Amino acid sequence: MNVLRLALLASHGGTNVQAILDACAKGDIKAEPVLVISNNSTANVVNRARQAGIKTLHLSSTTHPNAVVLDNAIRRALQDSDVDLVVLAGYNKRLGPSTVSAYRHRILNIHPGLLPKYGGAGMYGLRVHQAVLDNDETESGATVHLVDEEYDHGPTIAELRVKVLPGDSPETLSERIKTREHELYVDVLRRIAAGEIELPAR
Ligand code: GRF
Description:
The structure is a single chain. It contains 6 helices and 7 strands; from the N terminus they run E-H-E-H-E-H-E-H-E-H-E-E-H. By secondary structure, it is α/β, with parallel strands linked by helices. It has a 7-stranded mixed sheet with strand order 3-2-1-4-5-6-7, covered by helices on one side.
């Protein structure tokens, strides 16, 4: 079987990206990260990728003010690097239709909450955890799902659940979930690369 070629898209610190790069380097995920794209040229994820010797690209509304041109540039960058699977890890932009349709069922995202209840436009970062606390939920979690044209909408591939503890703040809940996210995302990618999870046809 050919080694799966991964692109990772992220906007910020990139702790999930780091966990995935480390797991690929150790051979736990039988995949090769070939490209990291960020819409934020100063994001720490860019340093992480450079340190790992992986090609980085800054593609954003700054580099490409026209949304259609940006969408095409992202799609072309993925295709030029022969990417098989696109991994969104804290990427805070919606991908355009050209990229989504060229990589139908081959784009994954991790969301720091349970879907569909805690997803959708405006539901990101600490806002997710605040909403969970406001609703007095006893459980929260994280979800890996396929990406389609809508925010946090494609089919769920895997999720984890954690208990909401008395006295939790959005920050403590976020922190507890984040550590587990790394394990979840690495495990999902390991299983996809090993053929244990079969993604729908493209
Ligand atoms: C994670 O909580 C992820 O669920 C969300 O964005 C955050 C990214 O964190 N989509 P990091 O940059 O991987 O540390």
